[in-house]
């Protein structure tokens, strides 16, 4: 009984800081961006940009209330909007837009 309580207590902890570099799939170079969270703020997704002077900088792409999954990260890098339901296409999409 005591061990179960200790494990339950340990599982109740929350992360106060998170940082991870993002790479292209299957590589360790080049860095494409980073994810950062500092409690109590949201998760922030950054994109790495090379400057002509040879330096690099990170620009914020998006924020998330919870840790983003790989699909959310990829969509943010591709510029796809979040949380939109799949809309009907073709003739049904046209008719539902009119009605």
Structure description:
It is built from three helices and four strands; from the N terminus they run αββββαα. The longest helix is centred in the N-terminal third of the chain and has 10 residues, at 2-11. The radius of gyration is 20 Å and the shape is flat. It is 28% helix and 32% strand. It has 99 residues and is an alpha+beta fold. It starts with a helix and ends with a helix. Strands 1-2-3-4 form a four-stranded antiparallel beta sheet. A hairpin with a 7-residue loop joins strand 1 and strand 2. The protein has one domain. This is DUF1995 domain-containing protein.
Describe the secondary-structure layout:
Elements: H1 2-11, E1 17-23, E2 31-38, E3 43-50, E4 56-64, H2 70-78, H3 90-98
InterPro entries: Chloroplast_ADK, DUF1995
Pfam family, one: DUF1995
Domain DUF1995: 3-74
Features:
32% strand, 99 residues, 3 helices, single chain, alpha+beta, 28% helix
Strand element count:
4
Distance between the termini: 61 Å
**Number of helical elements:** 3
| Overall average residue pLDDT | 85
List the uncertain runs.
none
InterPro entries: Chloroplast_ADK, DUF1995
Protein name: DUF1995 domain-containing protein
Organism: Liquidambar formosana
Domain DUF1995: 3-74
Structure, briefly:
This protein has 99 residues and is α+β, with helices and mostly antiparallel strands. It has helices at residues 2-11, 70-78, 90-98; strands at 17-23, 31-38, 43-50, 56-64. It has one domain (16-98).
């Amino acid at each position: 009984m005591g061990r179960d309580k200790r494990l339950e207590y340990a599982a109740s902890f929350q992360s106060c800081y998170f940082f991870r570099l993002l790479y292209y799939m299957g590589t360790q170079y080049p860095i494409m961006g980073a994810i950062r969270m500092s409690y109590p703020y949201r998760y922030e997704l950054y994109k790495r940009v090379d400057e002509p002077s040879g330096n690099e900088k990170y620009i914020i792409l998006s924020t998330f209330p919870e840790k983003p999954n790989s699909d959310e990260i990829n969509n943010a890098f591709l510029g796809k909007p979040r949380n939109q339901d799949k809309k009907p296409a073709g003739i049904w999409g046209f008719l539902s837009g009119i009605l």
